[in-house]
Amino acid sequence: MATPHEILKQYWGFDQFRPLQEDIIRSVLEGNDALALLPTGGGKSICFQVPALCMEGICLVVSPLIALMKDQVANLKKREINAEAIFSGMSYREIDRILDNAAYGGIKFLYLSPERLTTELVRERIKRMNISLLAVDEAHCISQWGYDFRPPYLQIAEIRDLIPKTPVLALTATATPEVVIDIQEKLLFKQKNVFQKSFSRTNLSYVVLPEENKYAKLLDILRKVKGSGVVYARNRKLTKDIARYLIENKVSADFYHAGLSPDERSSKQEAWIVGRIPIMVCTNAFGMGIDKPDVRTVVHVDLPENLEAYFQEAGRAGRDGKKSYAVLLYSDEDKRTLERNLLLSFPPVQDIRQVYRALGSYFQLAVGAGEFQTFDFDIADFCKNFQLDVVKTYSCIKILEQEGWISLTESVWMPSSFMVLVGREQLYDFQLKNPSLDPIIKSLLRLSEGAFQHFVPINESAVARLLKTTNDKVLPAIQHLHNQGIIEYRPLKDKPQLTFTKERVDANNFTIDVASYNLRKERQQKRMEKAIAYATTARCRSQMLLEYFGENSPTCGTCDVCLGRTQAALSTDDFERYKLKIKQLIVAEKITERQLMEAFAANRQPNVVKALAFLMDEGIVALENERLTWKEKP
Ligand code: ADP
User: Fold this and answer.
1) Separation of 60 CA from ligand 1 center, angstroms?
2) Fold for the domain defined by 4-196
3) Measured between alpha carbons, how far is 26 from 18 in angstroms, rounded to an integer?
4) 41: CA distance to ligand 1 center in Å?
5) C-beta separation of 467 from 440 below 8 A
6) Ligand 1 proximity of 291 Cβ (cutoff 6 Å)
7) Which residue is closest in CA terms to ligand 1's atom 26?
8) Could you identify which of 176, 199, 536, 544 might form a hypothetical disulfide with 597, taking C-beta atoms 3.0 to 4.6 angstroms apart as the criterion?
9) Strand runs (DSSP E) across 551-592, as ranges?
10) Whose CA is nearest to atom 9 of ligand 1?
11) Alpha-carbon Rg for the chain in angstroms
12) 290 touches ligand 1 (CB under 6 Å)
C-alpha cells in the first residue's frame, strides 16, 4: 500500500500536507468515521482523495452541486485518476453504464447527488461494489439547523446498512456547534470524531460601514484598495447596474450571475482569474470552487441572510495570507429587506399546495405517477403558464424541496450526445437502404469515437461544417435517426432539473409538516438576527464571527471596531454624552445591542459602537443572554 505522502507527491506533486489533513487521513485509514471542518480553500478534497487512493476499492462522494461534482471529476481525470459523476438529468443508460463500470472496478471515485444515491438502481449496484470510503461533501446540508438544509442528505445514512464496514468522512466549511453534533448523529457516526481547524483569519480585516450612499462608498473603497476584488450584491440586476457604475467611473469591472450562458460565465470568470478584469460584481453564484489566492477585497453591498454565507463569501479574500479586507456596506434598509424576504420565503400552505398541483399539470403527471422522474424546469415559463408570481413560486418550490416532495438542481449544462443502438451490420444495412442518411451517419461516426459502446458528445455544427451544410438540415436528420431507433440522441441541456422524489398525490392528500416548517422559519429568523447583530455590534467583528462558529478567540485588533477603539476617535465630552444616553436606555429596559443601536440616528451609530465597545471592554456593560446589562456600581 502506498503511503499518503507518496500519493500526495505522485498525483498532486505536493511535498507536505496542510495542518489537519494528515490527521484526518490517518483517522480514515484506521477505519474511523470523521468530520472535517476546514475553511473554504483549506484543502478538503485531498482529505478523502488521498486515503481513497491508498486503499483498494471505490470512494463514493456525495455532493449537492452538479457544477462542483463536474469540476472535481475533471480535476481527477486530469491527474489520470478514474472518476465519474451521476446526477439528475442523466439518462438511465448513462447511469447504468457508469454503475456497471464501477462494479467491475473501472472507477476510483464515484460522485453522486444525494437524491441519486438512494434510488433503488444505485442501491442495488452498491451491493456489488467494493466501497472503501463514503465521503460526504458540504455535510452541513444534512442539518435542519444549518443554513442550506437539503432533505435528500438525510437518506445518506440508509446506505450505511449496505456497507457496514465502510467509514464515513463528512466535510464542511461552515457549521455552528449544534450543526457539528447534528451531522455526526444524522450520519450515524460510530464515535464522535471532529477535526476542526480554527476559522480565524488574521490577515483579514472585517469592516462594516453604515452607509446610505453605497455606490459612492464602494467606488471610494475600490479606488483605495488596489488589486483583485469581489463585490457581492443581492440580485442579478444590481450586479449589472453596479458594474456599469464602476466602469463609468473608470474602475475596470464586470458582472456575473447564474442567468448568463455557460460560455459567458466561463469567459468572465477566466478574465477575472488572470487579472484582466480586477473587479467582479456578482451574486452568490460566483466564487464557489474558484481558488484565487490574491483577492484583496470582498465587498458586500447588501447584508447576506446569515453569517454562514457571509463568512464563506468574505473568506474568499486573502487566501495568500496577505493583508485583505472584508467590507460590508450596511444601511437600515438592509434590515427591512431581510425581514421582508423572510416573510416571502415562508408562503402560506395553500400557496404551496397550488404550486404543487400546478407542477403536476405542467409536467402532465397523473396522480400516482412521477416518482424519481426528472424534467427540465424553466421557472419563468412555468409561472407564465399558471400566472404565478416568480418570487413566491420559487419560495414554494424551496419548501416543497425541504418537505421532500421534489428536488431541484442548479442549471446543468450537458453537451449533446448520442449512442448507436444497433450493431455494425444492422447499421450498414440501414445505410444501404437510406442512402440520403449515409453521409450524416458517416460524419457522426467520424467525429465521435466509441459511439457503439457508450454515449459520446457531438457538436452538431461541426457535423454541418463537415457536410458543408447548415444546422437546420443536420438536426432533423439526427432526430430522424433517433426516431428510427438507430441512435439515441440527447440534445444539449442547460436547464435546472426538477425531480419528483415521491409519486404525485392528489391535492387533498398533499400535506406539509407544519411543526418543522415553523421551526425552520424560526431558525431562519434567528440566523437573520445574528447577521443584523454582526452589522450593528460594538464588539470585535472577528471575535463575534468566530463565536458564532463555536470558537473562543481574542479581539483581532484589525477590524473597524478594534481600530476605532484604539484610535480613540471620540472626544471625552462626546464619550460621556454617549455613555449617559446608553446607560439610561439599558437601565430602563433589558435591550439587545441592536435595539440600542436603533435608538440612535444612523449617522450616530458609529460613535455609539465606539462608546459601547469601550464600556464593554471595561466591564461596565456586559451581554447576558444577548441583552445588555449595566454593571458599573453607582
Ligand atoms: P476546499 O474544498 O477545502 O475549498 P480544495 O480541496 O479545493 O479546498 O483545495 C484548495 C486548494 O489547495 C487546491 O488548489 C489544492 O490543490 C490546494 N491544496 C490542498 N492541499 C494542499 C497541500 N497539502 N499542499 C499544497 N496545496 C494544497
Assistant:
1) 20
2) Rossmann fold (3.40.50)
3) 13
4) 6
5) yes
6) yes
7) 14
8) 536
9) none
10) 43
11) 27
12) no
What is the C-alpha separation between 318 and 278, in angstroms, rounded? 14
What average pLDDT does this structure show over 333-339? 93
In CATH, 204-330 is 2.30.40.10: no
Owner of C-alpha cell 447583530: 533
CATH class of 417-490: mainly alpha
pTM: 0.79
Amino acid at the residue 46: I
Examine domains 4-196 and 204-330 and report if their fold is the same: yes
Question: What is the residue type of 245?
Answer: Y
Cα 5 from Cα 27, distance rounded (Å): 15
pLDDT at 453 over 90: no
What rounded mean pLDDT belongs to the chain? 91
Q: 261: helix, coil or strand? A: coil
Atom of ligand 1 nearest to the CA of 40: 4
Residue 46 Cβ contacting ligand 1 at under 6 Å:
yes
Q: Which three cell numbers stand for residue 11?
A: 498525483
Is there an atom of ligand 1 within 6 Å of 67 CB? no
**Strand partners of residue 488:** 419
Tell me if residue 181 falls in helix, strand or coil.
Answer: helix
State the pLDDT confidence band at 454, using cuts at 50, 70 and 90. confident
**Is there an atom of ligand 1 within 6 Å of 79 CB?**
no
Residue 330 alpha carbon to ligand 1 centre in Å: 33
Give yes or no for residue 38 CB within 6 A of ligand 1: yes
Identify whether the C-beta of residue 133 lies closer than 8 Å to the C-beta of residue 169: yes
